[in-house]
Amino acid sequence: MATVLLFGDSNTHGTAPMAALRDRVRFDAATRWPGHLARALPGVTFVEEGHPGRTTVHDDPIEGAHRNGAAVLPALLESHAPLDAVVIMLGTNDMKARFSVTAVDVALSVERLGRMVQAWGCGPGQGAPRLLLVAPPPVEEVGCLAGMFAGGAAKSRRLAAELAPVAARLGAGFVDAGALIAVSPVDGVHYDAAAHARLGAALAPAVAALLDLQGGDDAERS
Fold first, then answer.
1. What are the Cα distances from residue 22, in Å, to 19, 95, 145?
2. Total number of domains in the chain
3. Structural domain of residue 161, as residue ranges?
């Protein structure tokens, strides 16, 4: 049975759209996109590793250094090895105004994570697992998170175009989630239940192809 690590942020964790900053609701396992993906590919074990606020490579000066994806990735690769594949969907939190980075910076940061995955010997036979990069949908500056993501909407619209050549350099698969779903108009960052269902179903063929599985086209329709 293949094992796939899903490495992401609050949208992999399943955080529901927030009407206020104090809101902390998480969709249940059946509603989150990894759950839809798992049902579409029942022969695969998926490790859900989504952390709200996770960045690619940045220590968050407000929410904590433990949200730095590059800092925690090695431990996760080792603890869940051997991994047949790793799916990385990060970059949304890098769009927060506090980090002052460009879409190019974010894409290069994802590339750093991808190279870590490939070099860590965490795949079968201590080789490299296969890799899928997912560009998150662009954020919108609305609701309670608008100020936090000031300037992020325009930058995030350029991320997929910058991330595609990164995937090519890494020999990785690539999916532009922004072509499949949109963020909720409630907070401009998180996905509603319907978007989770669409994303999980749409990623199933990409993951199946990554693992050379049959049946990826039978992903559940929602």
1. 8, 21, 11
2. 1
3. 2-218
Nearest to 78 by CA among 46, 44, 120: 120
Q: What are phi and psi of 175, to 5 degrees?
A: -135, 130
Encode pLDDT of 149-191 as tens digits: 999 999 999 999 999 999 999 999 999 999 999 999 999 999 9
Residue 123 and residue 181 in contact, taking contact as beta carbons nearer than 8 Å: no
CATH number at residue 166: 3.40.50.1110
DSSP string, 78-109: HHH-S-SEEEEE--TGGGSGGG---HHHHHHH
Bridge-partner residues for 162, per DSSP? none
The three-class DSSP label of residue 144 is helix
Average pLDDT for 56-61: 98
Helices assigned H by DSSP within the chain: 10-13, 33-40, 69-80, 103-119, 152-156, 159-170, 193-210
Could you say which DSSP state residue 214 is in?
S
**SS3 call for 27:** coil
Give SS3 for 26: strand
Within its chain, how far is the Cα of 96 from the centroid? 16
Q: What is the pLDDT of residues 184-204, one digit of tens each?
A: 999 999 999 999 999 999 999
